[in-house]
Design goal:
By secondary structure, the chain is α+β, with helices and mostly antiparallel strands. It is built from 5 helices and 8 strands, in the order βαααβββββββαα. The chain folds into 2 domains: 154 residues, Alpha-Beta Complex (Cathepsin B, Chain A); 93 residues. A 6-stranded mixed beta sheet has the order 3-2-4-5-1-6. A two-stranded antiparallel ribbon has the order 7-8.
Length: 260
Amino acid sequence: MEKQLQFKVINNNGCQEKLTNQCMWISILNYLERKGYQDLTLMELRAIGKLGDDSKHEMFDIMKKKFKKAINAIATVFDLKINFYAIDHDGVARSYTIPEGCINPVPGFTINRRGNNIVSIAQFGTYHFELITSGYDVEVLEDGEYYRPTILVDKKITYVDKFILPKNLMDLYMLRIEKSEFVEFLQKDIKNNENNLHRLFDILNETSETIKFVEIRKGMKIEEKRIDQLLRLIHMKRNAILQETEEIKKIDTKIGKLEA
């Protein structure tokens, strides 16, 4: 059978139970509904994450402490391992997420790596998330629909096919917004990686002063390996930012010519 190289998803527009911009929590709820929690509501799921009224219309941002705590709390309660995959507007995994010599993408980041129930989330830019139902090597939940790209308009998630623009201009606008959001996501991700690096360096410095047992030495080797991995990741993401920034400049030039 031919390998499915496009992710299929459960589409959502971020709106449910009179709330808006809730695509992250709706995606997790969609998974739980398919695993026996049909009566669980969005408000109840948010309550498990201790999210208050101030976030009823706020987009998920992993860099904000309240959202980080919320998604980790939900993952712990339901024993979830949540993998996030960066994908292009056509539903295919971004090329930088597929290591050389491999055929399957790797998650951009993961919440609760020890969880036993794997939730696969499609991420387009920094704002929109949808539950993946099939594609590549993820667990098949159901057939699903192909991913529909969305952009942020007036602080609301909007499907790009709602716009009436000449196709060549629409394609360029969509591509520019997508790449700008991707650069923003990479910058946030690098900051998170750098924070993890600082913590690992602190651990190594503390441990090096008190090495007495073989077990501690083994632990140091693990931390050193993790530092090396993080440094490579940061380097890769910085290169991706440079490439995407150059592409954005080229797109701006094309848009300028078409609008002239």
